[in-house]
Amino acid sequence: MKAVGFFRNLPIDHPDVLQDVELAIPELRDHDLLVEVKAVSVNPVDTKIRAHGDVPQGAPRIPGWDAAGIVRATGPLATRFKPGDRVWYAGDITRLGSNSELQAVDERIVGPMPRSLDFAEAASLPLTAITAWELLFDRLRVHEADPTENSVLLVTGAAGGVGSTLTQLARRLTGVTVIGTASRDQTREWVLAHGAHHVINHREPWAPQLQALGIKEVDFVVGLNESASYVPQIAAVMRAEGKFALIDDPVALDIGPFKTKSISIHWELMYTRPIFTTRTIARQHALLRRMAELVDRGDVVHTLTRRIDGLDAAGLIQAHALVEAGNMIGKVVVAAR
Prior knowledge:
By secondary structure, the chain is α/β, with parallel strands linked by helices. It contains 10 helices and 15 strands. Strands 3, 4, 5, 6, 7, 14 and 15 form a 7-stranded mixed sheet that branches. A 6-stranded parallel sheet has the order 10-9-8-11-12-13, with helices on both faces. A two-stranded antiparallel sheet has the order 1-2. The radius of gyration is 20 Å and the shape is globular.
């Protein structure tokens, strides 16, 4: 089968950064599906793994952890899907990625694709949907906020893929006031259109902007980028016993300013469940099924903003370059011709 991978960690402008390769069709484990991949989205995790991740000796590493496609075969214990079903998923970072013609993926982390989306649109959502859902409901447990209080959620870098999905979920499924951060007119408009009640500029002091909105303190903060640099401001605007969750990878994170207020810290990595086959692994299937219902009902919209046709090395190199540029709004998707 055809796939796209890398043999060395190389910069995006190197001619061998990603290569078209031929691989054997993967063997299925008990709970696996064999999926014909129709579209993939490219996320920061793809560019990080490509630039710095481990590479098997003498073999390519196949990235790609966000896909939509059609089930072609099932493992002996797989019961949730049958051949011909359309599915979406983010996969398992320890296994062969979705930048391939066929991919084996555990059905417990796969959901039925929304009927109202095409493959490219659907591929823009699984990774961000799982990350956003787990941030809100597994890590921060926003749904447990006292409904008699006007709880406030602040999301940094809200115009990206995760932020665009998280603000929608928080607005539709919780009663919290959602505030996103953005620094450009275009990103500000995008964040408001995707569910935020208010937007503040993360390049300016937060407290005066919040006070101008009549908000004295926030209950929850989600850090999607540059979290280490925001710690002093988070500590300043967070209420005592508030909750902070982050997904980025700061080299160092000084949490000393959080001690006085007993601010709790929560890491989110959506690959934790498949990596460790946790007892809650099937929750990803359940939340993707629920997300499909929300999309088909019109409560959540896809975040595709750039589509590239051609699921090959040339198309994926173009997508990696767009993500690495650091100014993407929404998601870039590479679809099979």
